[in-house]
Design brief:
The protein is mainly α. It folds into two domains: about 5-80, no CATH class; about 95-190, no CATH class. The protein has helices at about 5-20, 30-40, 45-60, 70-80, 95-115, 120-125, 130-140, 150-160, 170-175, 180-190. The protein is elongated, with a radius of gyration of 25 Å.
């Protein structure tokens, strides 16, 4: 096996950029992949594999094929900007950003309740029941539909929430969650709590 040289990596990254911008397949039977294979003396499968190594960096290490060579990563890091490719730094998708915001909101609810009932064990992690229950509930209310099993899980999660005084749970949820999430969770609490 002959080691790849820097020029071969650069040519493959240029092809990657072109195919990515044109939203075209990066497989061994693609005519552009075959042409580059002929030009470099590599197999089309080898070129296709390198394209997937570059996809790994372009996707913020969430897609593509990991474990490319050190040179592969170096070439991507040197050339991504001039080729108009995504930064090799992992990015947060909208879905994971929403999830982080939801977890932060649940954390706010737990902290508000812990302070109101003067029970810091809710924050220190001695009691994860409230956080886990709320996380489970919000996971299910964000889905499109419920199965019977989902309803059982939801019911159990809601019933495991301790009974807090003076509607403390609802007011904490209302102040921390978006209205759409609050109204859904409030309906479920009324059904099962």
């Amino acid at each position: 096996m002959i080691k790849w040289n820097k020029k071969e990596y650069e040519l493959t990254l240029e092809l990657f950029s072109k195919l990515k911008k044109e939203n075209r397949a990066m497989h061994a039977s693609n005519p552009d992949v075959v042409a580059l294979a002929r030009k470099t003396g590599r197999s089309a499968n080898s070129i296709a594999m390198r394209l997937q190594n570059f996809e790994y960096y372009a996707s913020g290490k969430r897609g593509g094929l990991p474990h490319g060579s050190k040179m592969c990563e170096e070439v991507y890091n040197e050339c991504w900007q001039q080729l108009g490719l995504p930064s090799p730094v992992a990015t947060v998708s909208n879905a994971s950003m929403e999830e982080m915001m939801t977890l932060a909101a649940i954390n706010d609810v737990v902290v508000n309740i812990a302070m109101a009932v003067n029970d810091m064990s809710l924050i220190k992690g001695d009691s994860v029941d409230l956080f886990d229950s709320l996380t489970t509930i919000l996971k299910y209310i964000n889905s499109e539909s419920f199965t019977l099993r989902d309803m059982k899980v939801l019911s159990a999660a809601i019933k495991s929430i301790p009974d807090y005084p003076n509607d403390l749970l609802r007011s904490s949820l209302r102040s921390s969650l978006p209205e759409s999430q609050f109204s859904k969770i409030n309906t479920l609490i009324e059904l099962f709590y």
